[in-house]
Amino acid sequence: MRINILGCYSATPRTFTNPTSQVLEIKNHLFLIDCGEGTQVQLRRNKIKFSRIKHIFISHLHGDHYFGLAGLISTFRLLSRESELHVYGPKGIKEVITLQMKLADSWTNYPLLFHELTSKESELVFEDEKVEVYTIPLQHRIYANGFLFKEKPGNRKLNIDAINEYKIDKAYFKKLQQGADVVNEEGELVANEEVTYAPSKRKSYAFCSDTAYKEDIVTIIKKVDVLYHEATFLERHEHLAPKTKHSTAKQAAQIAKLADVGTLILGHYSTRYDDIEEFRQEASEIFKKVELADDGKYFEF
Amino acid sequence: MRINILGCYSATPRTFTNPTSQVLEIKNHLFLIDCGEGTQVQLRRNKIKFSRIKHIFISHLHGDHYFGLAGLISTFRLLSRESELHVYGPKGIKEVITLQMKLADSWTNYPLLFHELTSKESELVFEDEKVEVYTIPLQHRIYANGFLFKEKPGNRKLNIDAINEYKIDKAYFKKLQQGADVVNEEGELVANEEVTYAPSKRKSYAFCSDTAYKEDIVTIIKKVDVLYHEATFLERHEHLAPKTKHSTAKQAAQIAKLADVGTLILGHYSTRYDDIEEFRQEASEIFKKVELADDGKYFEF
């Protein structure tokens, strides 16, 4: 699992910082999460293959989280994309993107599918054999969701030496991988655990931005391996957080602690701060394993 | 008069090139012409003061000419702008920008005024005591206008030595500057030309992008000092020009020659070409004074 940060600063793009966008690589998927202005240039800088992006998740309709989407969609057209593109985001996203295409008289030549979100409860929005994605309802000035990406339980792994010893026919391998007990060539029932190893641990990633401190997300993100949580402010500007519906580094750490996550990644820093290292210091006092997002940085888990 | 090229490549932003946007400085105005994705970063890189931009002219509603506008408008809000912002562009521009503000529940705290264009004839769209701006109807896949910026005739300049000699009272200076003959202290009529100099030459700039070869713009842009004309293709790809409603470098030069302009600036190059110098070579065979636009480059006249 790899998280590539394309942009992680709040507000508008600057010469050296970018608004929110990141790419999650999980089980051979490349999920784009948020798409601020300049995302397609950041994708190129980070050498991410455009054609591998098939699913885009938009947290909310503030410009710094999606103003790069219309351009990216039209670039896909110029690149002669043919495969489906799925966009998950708040209701309204289809109207605004479609209006831009209509005014340009430029329709995509690939299937563009919108999945508009309106629920205030967590819901499953994507699923295939390997991964599932749930929304994480956040509390912001406008309707906003985070996203929880979870690997599905993998197959059990075959212990070939044990299989040979127990004389189990190849025809049963699939059943073994699925966890079933099987009958061997001598007609004996062999317990699955005798001839297989446990599947590798399921990894999970939760993206939570933008949001005020919201304790009830803890049940949804409980024990995720990695939590990206916005930290727009430091505690000394805590009074600004409820007004703007953002969080402080300390609050992000409190959520990480309550949810007992593996690693907390901070981001969405207000551009008023010169040194983001302060965010780590503040959060570390509450929760130990803190990383700082930065544009172009990536994390592997 | 100064033209600052922020971006001059066709299609979508890349790591090292930007879509169309430029700033024209004329008679103390800073006019922003087109606003592709990434324009606000380019404005910063080129050290252009955001607050000096009061008028934005959008040629047409293809993304590479305006996808940076919604972000710029919201940045102005974050910068606590108070002064009016005027946006001139095709019908539809108000709807699409307003929809983005509505979905974000983020309205400007400064007056944002749209001037929507629908006419297929050249029309005066802006005028003050010093400058006038006319549309130049272009021929593109969708409704598109170029813009003609013309300084108004300045005042005649006073020849103080001659004025003293003719004994003309100060009270008449304004009339003299406006070109009137006046009566001196001895009751004699003094011809204006005897005591004033001609005003400095009126400068003019025409921006024409995107457009197919369109000969009837020549009457509108006749004898302008500087013509920016798109040159998406070289002649060897001439067959693509009518289909996509773009021009070749040669065609741009033909327009410059017919209109008898001072200088031709080429831009809007297709990203298929590695060396833009070829555009100059091709145009120079038809029209002598050719300049190549490039991102970050500026021209003074």
CATH architecture descriptor name of the largest domain in chain A: 4-Layer Sandwich
What is the strand tally of chain A?
Answer: 18
Helix percent of chain A reads 10-25%
What is the overall pLDDT average of chain A? 97
For the largest sheet of chain A, list the strands in their spatial order. 6-5-4-3-2-1-18
- List segments of chain A where confidence is low: pLDDT < 50 over at least 5 consecutive residues: none
Brief digest:
Two copies of one chain form a homodimer. The first copy, chain A, is α/β, with parallel strands linked by helices.
From the structure above, extract its key features.
18 strands; alpha/beta; 28% strand; 10 helices
Written description of the protein model:
Two copies of one chain form a homodimer. Chain A is an alpha/beta fold. Chain A has two domains: 2-154 and 200-300, Ribonuclease Z/Hydroxyacylglutathione hydrolase-like (Metallo-beta-lactamase, Chain A, 4-Layer Sandwich), CATH 3.60.15.10; 157-197, no CATH class. Chain A is 24% helix and 28% strand. Chain A has helices spanning 39-45, 69-78, 93-104, 160-166, 173-177, 192-195, 218-221, 240-244, 249-259, 277-284, and strands spanning 2-7, 21-26, 29-35, 53-57, 85-90, 112-117, 124-127, 131-137, 145-151, 157-158, 182-183, 189-190, 196-197, 204-208, 226-230, 263-267, 290-292, 298-300. A seven-stranded mixed β-sheet of chain A has the order 6-5-4-3-2-1-18. In chain A, strands 7-8-9-14-15-16-17 form a seven-stranded mixed β-sheet, with helices on one face. In chain A, strand 16 (263-267), helix 10 and strand 17 form a beta-alpha-beta unit. In chain A, helix 9 packs across helix 10. The model of chain A has no long low-confidence stretch (mean pLDDT 97). The interface between A and B is medium-sized, with 34 and 34 residues.
